[in-house]
């Protein structure tokens, strides 16, 4: 089994079964000093944070490099019962959309915020591939702070990619669709009515708050990936496009007809000028904008009803197509901003485009016709050169900051290093197996940190202890500091990582939030001390202002709740020590637990389903007496006249015990 090579010929035969082949030396040994290079002495910290997309788990995860140790899962688009994300009343609005509450999505790409083309350590952005959205994650709390939905889009794959000062996060649609406000169209009218919208989301430089500044209404094709220009090409954006055949069925064949698809070049500075001139058109749309407020520890969701659009056909000089061989996937810009690398999934070469030549071709109108009214630049006029015989199935390219590029090859299962100037292949190493994205620390910035590359592999097979039909996805760390790439480490991941970025620990460590100050807690239902703890009835709603501190809740005995009530436990964690969360869970609750950080308030809603005594307890082992951190809620029948009472530390008099029993 180990040495079977699977149908590479299929590629050539256009059978298009893009299964991978296994490298022959699948068991290959690592070099002697590999262990030393990844060994982080217990108690010591890693050199890099590695922030990894979770794919179909809808989350991000945080690892250390070079150790490959996982530190955290950050829920973004998917609920996470482990800490109540999407279950607590405060976080539910974060998952609201124009379709209502959605508990899941598919997160493929990470972008870390930049200033002057370099990592600034403030935010991470992530995309929702299914129900188009972009999220912003704070790199101080490591939590999702904001989610914005994208109208007129279907499948937000080409996202989120950022400009060199985080002016914009850009997202383009994978599925072309008719505009949201006029969508009831025959699918056969694709060419006429389906459009490919590209959203430019502005980011406030102080708060990070996002807003859709404008959408470009492009012809009905599919956008796959993108990168902003940088340095000399700052002000431009590049997108890989496929399905320029404009097929709406059996794309595996119908969208692979043409010899070349496109890379789209967008002059976004020019778009800003056109907007200023009033060329934009506001159209009706419906999308959610969700914001989490660190002071109130609560999220709000607002529905927005219009979006600004720009039609490139009315804005000359705004967009150009460049032919790019065979279904381009990755579209990556080198650190200088001069070279744009397109990776055609079915192509035999890697084309490298030159920004200077693009500018010349535009100035000289060196066109090769047009596509749906948009000029197509001549391939030869914009091409810097092609990397010959690089491998099979190129997907993504990153840069080492030493003048080299490394490209991942899914079909031939390898990483290939090549020189950007002379386009010569320098080195290749196998990956186990079928690498998707790759990531070099700082790889997409103008100053890559280099040192390592991580391969995020799609297929794991025999690399780990088997765990039934499903195996963990595997990441592999390579040393790229020398001429030859050296495999150092395999480490398992969660979900299915696509893109990831790594950033020096020194940029994040110092800003990491330790506690929320209790005196700054602006939550409407906070109890900032045990004296403020109380239970209040408002109609059939019972609001429990409950505090948690090692090792008890206040109150921990509650009576007078009745069937038909909705009980809201607003739990405030009074601790002001780092790393002392308390958890909260209720027996029989159709909900998750909540995990409350020091100084924070979170709310668990519970609708009792039966009469009786319901235990509540702390789920996080917070002290030696954690197990004692528990309490009771008495639920009585509808219409019962048990009064609403609450207490902590009150022991019943023997008299009362007798009476109560009757
Ligand atoms: Cu290549 Cu969705 Cu970025 Cu995965 S995509 S590999
Ligand atoms: Cu609080 Cu365990």
TrEMBL record:
It is an enzyme of class 1 (oxidoreductase). InterPro entries: Cupredoxin (IPR008972), N2O_reductase_N (IPR011045), Nitrous_oxide_Rdtase_Sec-dep (IPR026468), Nos_propeller (IPR041114), NosZ/Cyto_c_oxidase_sub2 (IPR051403), WD40/YVTN_repeat-like_dom_sf (IPR015943). The gene is nosZ. GO terms for cellular component: cell envelope. Its EC number is 1.7.2.4. Pfam families: nos_propeller. Gene3D superfamilies: Cupredoxins - blue copper proteins, YVTN repeat-like/Quinoprotein amine dehydrogenase. It is found in: Cell envelope. This is Sec-dependent nitrous-oxide reductase. Keywords: Copper, Metal-binding, Oxidoreductase. Its main location: other. GO terms for molecular function: metal ion binding; nitrous-oxide reductase activity.
């Amino acid at each position: 089994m180990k040495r079977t090579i699977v149908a590479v010929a299929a590629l050539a035969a256009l059978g298009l079964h893009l299964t991978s082949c296994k490298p022959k030396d699948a068991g290959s040994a690592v070099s002697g000093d590999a262990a030393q290079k990844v060994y982080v002495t217990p108690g010591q910290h890693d050199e890099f944070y590695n922030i990894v997309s979770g794919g179909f788990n809808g989350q991000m995860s945080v690892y250390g490099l070079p150790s490959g140790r996982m530190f955290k899962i950050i829920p973004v688009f998917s609920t996470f019962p482990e800490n109540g994300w999407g279950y607590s009343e405060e976080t539910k609005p974060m998952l609201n959309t124009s379709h209502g509450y959605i508990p899941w999505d598919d997160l493929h790409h990470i972008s870390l915020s930049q200033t002057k083309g370099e990592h600034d350590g403030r935010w991470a952005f992530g995309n929702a591939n299914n129900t188009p959205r972009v999220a912003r994650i704070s790199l101080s709390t490591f939590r999702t702070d904001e989610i914005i939905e994208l109208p007129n889009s279907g499948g937000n794959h080409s996202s989120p990619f950022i400009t060199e000062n985080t002016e914009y996060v850009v997202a383009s649609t994978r599925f072309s669709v008719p505009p949201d406000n006029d969508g009831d169209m025959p699918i056969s009218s694709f060419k006429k009515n389906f459009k490919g919208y590209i959203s430019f989301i502005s980011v406030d430089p102080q708060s990070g708050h996002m807003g859709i500044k404008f959408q470009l209404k492009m012809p009905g094709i599919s956008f796959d990936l993108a990168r902003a220009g940088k340095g000399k090409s700052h002000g431009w954006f590049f997108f890989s496009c496929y399905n320029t055949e404009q097929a709406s069925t059996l794309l595996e064949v119908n969208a692979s007809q043409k010899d070349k698809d496109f890379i789209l070049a967008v002059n976004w500075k020019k778009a800003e000028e056109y907007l200023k001139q009033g060329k934009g058109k506001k159209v009706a749309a419906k999308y959610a904008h969700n914001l989490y407020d660190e002071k109130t520890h609560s999220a709000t969701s607002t529905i927005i009803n219009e979006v600004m659009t720009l039609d490139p056909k009315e804005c000359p000089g705004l967009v150009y197509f460049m032919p790019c061989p065979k279904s381009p996937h990755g579209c990556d810009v080198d650190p200088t901003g001069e070279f744009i690398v397109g990776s055609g999934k079915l192509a035999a070469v890697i084309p490298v485009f030159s920004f200077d030549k693009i500018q010349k071709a535009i100035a000289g109108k060196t066109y090769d016709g047009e596509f749906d009214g948009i000029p197509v630049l001549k391939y030869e006029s914009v091409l810097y050169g092609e990397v010959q015989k690089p491998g099979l199935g190129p997907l993504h390219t990153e840069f080492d900051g030493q003048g080299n590029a490394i490209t991942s090859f899914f079909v031939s299962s390898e990483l290939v290093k090549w020189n950007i100037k002379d386009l010569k292949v320098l080195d290749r190493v196998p990956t186990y197996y079928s690498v998707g994205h790759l990531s070099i620390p700082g790889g997409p910035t103008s100053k890559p940190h280099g040192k390592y590359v991580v391969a995020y592999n799609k297929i794991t097979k025999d690399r780990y202890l088997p765990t039934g039909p499903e195996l963990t996805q595997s990441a592999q760390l390579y040393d790229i500091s020398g001429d030859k790439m050296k495999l150092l480490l395999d480490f398992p991941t969660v979900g299915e990582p696509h893109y990831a970025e790594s950033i020096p620990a020194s940029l994040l460590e110092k800003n990491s939030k330790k506690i929320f100050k209790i005196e700054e807690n602006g939550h409407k239902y906070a109890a900032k001390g045990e004296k403020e703890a109380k239970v209040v009835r408002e109609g059939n709603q019972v609001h429990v202002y409950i505090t948690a501190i090692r090792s008890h809740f206040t109150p921990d005995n509650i009576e007078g709740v009745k069937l038909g009530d909705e009980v809201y436990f607003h739990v405030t964690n009074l601790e002001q020590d780092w790393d002392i969360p308390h958890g909260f869970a209720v027996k029989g609750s159709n909900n998750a637990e909540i995990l409350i950080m020091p100084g924070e308030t979170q709310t668990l809603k519970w609708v009792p389903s039966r009469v009786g005594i319901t235990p509540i307890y702390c789920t996080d082992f917070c002290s030696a007496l954690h197990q004692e951190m528990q309490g009771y809620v008495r639920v009585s029948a509808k219409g019962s006249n048990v009064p609403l009472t609450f207490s902590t530390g009150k022991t019943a008099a023997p008299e009362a015990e007798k009476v109560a029993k009757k």
